[in-house]
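Researcher: Please predict.
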Amino acid sequence: MTAAKSPWPLGQIQGFLLRGYRQSFVRYFALSVKDAAKARAFIATLVDGADAGHQIATAEPWAIKPAILLNIGFTFRGLRNLGVPQASLDSFSDPNSVDIKSFAVGAAARAVAAPNGVGDVGASAPSNWIVSDQTFDVLLMLFAHNMEEMEDTSHKLRAKFAGGFEDTPETEFDGQALEDGQIYFGYRDGIAQPSIKGSPFAREPDGGQTQVDPGAFLMGEAEPGGFYSTMVLPAPDVLAHYGCFASFRILRQDVDGFDAQAEQLAPAIGAQYGIIDPEVQKAAVKALICGRWPNGTPLMTAPIDGNAMPAPLPPQLVNDFMYGSDVGQKCPIGAHIRRGNARDTNPAIVNGQPIANHRVLRRAMPYQVPYNPKDRHSGERGLIGLFLGTSFLKQFEFMMENWINYPNGFATDPGGADPMMGTNSKPAGKAYFETVQTPQTKAFKMSMENFVFTKGSAYCFFPGIDGIRWIAQNGA
């Protein structure tokens, strides 16, 4: 991948922070330290250049995409178990900064119902998780072009880290890309990501949204006087600089339930919008829930129009829109994509202005257990990946508390949480989602169930390359 001139040393930044790899497979190794010295020695091999085939992937451009890519993150428990000096550990709990405290506290402590937490309650509560930041130390991520490369590299890595870390099949978690960037709910995914000011990696047009302060994703690089410039960073600077936090999430999707509800609601939506074709009716229901048609075309560009099914748009058009004066006639105020990024929606409607201050980077991939590429309709299915930012409080937690899971996060949406991934806390998990927001148009309330359940969650820290080296050298 080529890149324009960068304001940062790209060789110091873990590559996935600035660009998506678009590999077909990912494996997350949730490793626990059993011998700190040997664990640090393994980590050192990932950044010392001696083993060219197993180095941490940086943001430096490549002429040909590597077959495999490695990145590494640490839980707070992991930093402690690897022997990071106490003064550095204490800096993550600095009373002068609320931005980084959540990392030391951990994901489970922040899982309570919104608006005081991220909303991992009920079936998504920590008591039901299979992994958390209290159960492992290091998150080693292996991205691969195909299954053979992933298995071969996994075998080699296990032999290298075996002396320092405990690893079992139960602590390895896989993701596998679907065709055309889809998720199991049937939508094209990974379309909209924040544009980082100064990033050398070009993105497709996005309607002219405000670019995000680089300090939101790269510690130590906040704009002077900007929203992220007052953050108290971890110590020492070599550990913090170019680092980023991430919420590692395993999200089980009730695909059958989601599809069944879309089919159940389809006739009523068809009657409201004059749609006769049953397949278009179901697609329209999904479009109203998401804010995009299943092929990725946004409702703002192609609103529901009888039996017409919009064609997929080219990359330069699929994300190039704003909401303007639309208050629900085309795209519902509470639709998933507006909940996750309200763009230019009226500030009186949305908590947390300006929106660019609270954007989150997503690096996620579908998963299937057991994985069966010949039968994508079987087994457990969902999403696995990372929600990235330098401030849990201002970014991931803010988004989950105020936009995704809090009914009052959108002032004119009287319904429940995000209709696709929110945790609806009304009786029996039900809430109502209004397809439009004005009585003069085709108002229709859809009764919603919960379809996404948190299966695992961990707060991780992804340092820059020198920060990884500092950890490997025992803080020397």
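Model: DSSP finds twelve helices and twelve strands in the chain.
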